[in-house]
Design a protein that fits this description.
Layout: H1 3-18, H2 34-50, H3 65-70, H4 82-85
Length: 90
């Protein structure tokens, strides 16, 4: 059996034992306007805090949040108070 065939066979067996490869809640979304974009950017930057990976948004070293702070879009302490700073995030 060729290496490429083994990879496909292993991939197929992994799918049958572990379920689908894609997250079930994945869907495509077309950004509708600036407010929609802002909500998505807020969600992306807030999610590491929500998941417990960091205590504050600014603690995530490789986040685009730091670039947004440099551009004056966010303040360095944005997200420290979830209720006051973040609109429309579940």
């Amino acid at each position: 059996m060729k290496e490429s065939q083994k990879a496909v066979k292993n991939d197929e067996s992994m799918e049958s034992t572990q379920g689908h490869k894609w997250q079930r809640r994945f869907w495509a979304h077309l950004i509708e306007d600036q407010d929609d974009y802002n909500r998505h950017a807020d969600y992306i930057h807030w999610n590491p805090v929500k998941q417990g990976w960091v205590n504050k948004v600014c603690d995530r070293p490789y986040s685009s949040f730091h670039h947004y702070v440099e551009q004056g879009i966010y303040t360095e302490n944005w997200g420290n108070n979830e209720n006051a700073d973040i609109y429309g995030i579940e």
